[in-house]
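Pasting as-is:
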Amino acid sequence: MNVLFLCTGNSCRSLISEAVFNHLAPNGWHAISAGSQPTGKLNDRALALLASKGISTEGYYSKSWDNLPVTPDIVVTVCASAAGETCPAYLGPVLRTHWGVEDPSHVVGTEEEISAAFEKAYAILRARIEAFLALPLDELKGDRAKLKAELDRIGHIEA
């Protein structure tokens, strides 16, 4: 099962989601991330945060949703602007859900405030991914409506 975490810039929230999901996911489950308008560069603070948590980002890069190596089974948007965009037609009838998280890379303030924003985004995304992976996925794979309802519910979990 392939999960796409989608954000406009593919530099921060979608990267964190991809890395955390792949760190926790069982065999046969894989995440990728992409952006509708990728920045072309991963956020340095997001990379440092993931490294501090012992989560590898080796081989990750900011990429467009037009150049995905696989077609996803599930698309999870993590920013409001990406949620409102129409996914490329080649994705077909992919299951979509929205897990909006404030962008920590846009926080202006002290070093402590910025670090706290990155920690909060990480904690929310990790809690949601853990909830996703705790679902009875083998049962839900055959019931798209129920899986979508569960994924939508998870999108409201706060850390």
